[in-house]
Every structure is written in C-alpha cells, then in structure tokens.
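Journal club prep — side note

Before the paper discussion, L.F. wants everyone to see what a predicted structure for a comparable chain looks like in token form. Sequence:
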Amino acid sequence: MTNSQHHDPIDVLGEAYEKMYERVVENIHKVEDKSGNFLHRLIDEARLRAIELRELTDDEAELVAQYLKRDLSDTVNYLSREGHELRDWLGFETTLLESDLLYLFDKLADPTTLALLKLKLDAEAAGYNTGEITGPGTLACDACGEKLHFHRAGRIPPCPRCEGTHFHRLRGDEAT
C-alpha cells in the first residue's frame, strides 16, 4: 500500500473497499449505455482511479475490485428478487450501518437500477474466504455455522469457533 503510513493494513483495505464502492455507486446513475457488463466496467474504472491516486498498489486494487464485484453482484441478485429489502441481505437492521454507507446502499437498491443490473450480472454466487475483504452483512462459517457480522467493509478472519476459512452470506431470518 502506498499510503499506509501508520494505518493497519486491514483497515486500509476496508477503507479502500468503501471508497471504491462509493465511486462505483456515484457513477451508476451517470452511465447512459447500460449494455454489457457496465457495473464491472465501473468497478474497473474505480480500481484504476485508486491506482492513479496511489491509494493502492496494482495487486491490492485488483483484490479489492474482485471483492467488490462479488459483493455487488450478490447484493443485486438478492435485492432484485421480489419482496427482499436491504436489511434482509445484510442480515441486520440498517440502523447499524454508518449513514454514508447506508445512503450508498440505498442508491444501489433503487428498483430501476436493480432491474437493469440484474439483467447484466451473472447469478452465480461466490463463496467468501478468510483474508478477503467483504462489505457489510452476515457471513456463516461453512464448517460450523458460526456467524460473523460485518457492519462495515473489512477483512474476513478465520472462524473464531473452529478456525474455518470458508463462508457463505446469510440473508434475512438466517442472519439473526
């Protein structure tokens, strides 16, 4: 990391994830041609911007972009199903999120945006692994079911119960 100064590297990647997410969401509504995989293009633009501003190295920016693509695809696929709300995807009340992050998630959750994004994204759900960065929500250990709640972007630790390293996202009532 080129700007790590005195910050914890884990916190820096979580902050980079949030900044990259913010750049993507702010640009979603500016894109007129939503053909192809425009969300991934926006994430790639945010990745290049982070490198250009020397916020992250090439490798770090690529990792954060991959994590963001995974989480946004998962969010859009879930929210685009009838009757699901942001708090269902997160697995906890949205009042626990920082207000800026909630605003950005609400912008992404706009029904028109969701409908367009759903048409463009693969429905394939990706797993979550220790060491990766994830956005807000609840993950469960694949080995023992222990729940990890993320109220902001952060690095996924090993399971505190069994030291497992593979997780899946819990939604709605599963997360409580």
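L.F.'s comment for the group: Confidence is low (pLDDT under 50) at residues 1-6, 119-125. Keep this in mind when we get to the figures.
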